[in-house]
Amino acid sequence: MFELIGVPPQALFGQLLLGLINGAFYAVLSLGLALIFGLLNIINFTHGAQYMMGAFAAWLLLNLAGLGYWPALLLAPVIVGLTGVLIERFLLKRLRGLDPLYGLLLTFGLALIVEGAFRQVYGVSGLAYPVPPSLAGGVNLGFMFLPLYRGWVVLASIVACLVTWAVIERTRLGATLRAATENPALVQAFGVNVPRLVTLTYGFGVALAAFAGVLAAPIYSVHPLMGANLIIVVFAVVVIGGMGSILGSVLTGFGLGVVEGLTKVFWPEASNTVIFVIMAIVLLIKPAGLFGRAT
Questions:
Q1: How far apart are CA 218 and CA 266, in angstroms?
Q2: Does residue 48 lie in a domain region?
Q3: Which of 26, 161, 178, 269 is paired with 262 by a 20 to 30 Å CA distance?
Q4: Is residue 214 part of a domain?
């Protein structure tokens, strides 16, 4: 069958794997963006910089504290998430109730400051981060060779997305958070500290970006612009899935990653623009996105 379409099976499955890996990062990053926008009405343009900070946190933990990949996978999201808590507490909190454009401008400025500071200290050349020994090597599946670490990235991303969706949609905490979004005064009257809940939610969304950064560190070189190169595509994924739709962001992220991988096989020149073409078509047909709700 593959010979009929003129594509070697190794090339096809290799690009599908690459698409799944890219889709894994799209899904986790767009999930954090959708969570922050859908529940807090904040367009978090700092998300790419926070993804980069997660990768740098893992690199610094390894080189300064001697902590390997597995401790970093737990500690880096917590560390970067705490910076998100501080940003929400001291900056974004002052914009609550205003037009979302103010939050977008603030977070865009913060992204430029953070990326500029890291570029000043570490330069623009990439820093290597080793694959953990327990995930080195790969498995021969017959039709392709599957590197263990890349398989782990896809699996970890799926688990993170499913757990986050379950917490938001299927737990009492998620119900409280959604209620606080709709009517904060009423929820506050029931004794819930709504400002603290909002702050922790933003910190969790930032931690998801940092988690993706740690996953990316052994695959891509760690450098200050790694988030800037990705965040525009992730915003397109969120728009296609529907702004604020958690499930839509996850499904669209993985789906568009696969579409991008297949495009590299059949039409390589269009692989860098196919997601934006799909976004334009979706916005023309359904402006709220595939899973979004019209307001």
A1: 28
A2: yes
A3: 161
A4: yes
* Amino acid letter for position 93: K
Confirm if 21 and 158 have CB atoms less than 8 A apart: no
The model's pTM is: 0.92
- Total domains in the chain come to 1
Please spell the DSSP secondary structure of the chain, one letter per residue. Answer: -TTTTT--HHHHHHHHHHHHHHHHHHHHHHHHHHHHHHHH----TTHHHHHHHHHHHHHHHHHHH---HHHHHHHHHHHHHHHHHHHHHHTGGGGTTS-HHHHHHHHHHHHHHHHHHHHHHH-SS-B--PPPGGG-SEEE-SSSEEEHHHHHHHHHHHHHHHHHHHHHHHSHHHHHHHHHHH-HHHHHHTT--HHHHHHHHHHHHHHHHHHHHHHHTTTS-B-TTTTHHHHHHHHHHHHHH-TT-HHHHHHHHHHHHHHHHHHHHH-GGGTTTHHHHHHHHHHHH-TT-SS----
Note whether residue 127 is domain-resident: no
Q: Which amino acid is located at 123 in the chain?
A: G
Q: Does residue 40 surpass a pLDDT of 70? A: yes
Range of the domain at 38: 9-107+146-285
Q: How far apart are CA 172 and CA 181, in angstroms?
A: 14
Average pLDDT over residues 181-194: 82
Measured distance CA(149)–CA(154) in Å, rounded: 9
Question: Is 2 a domain residue?
Answer: no
| Inter-axis angle of helices 274-285 and 246-266, nearest 10 | 130
**Mean pLDDT of all residues belonging to the chain:** 88
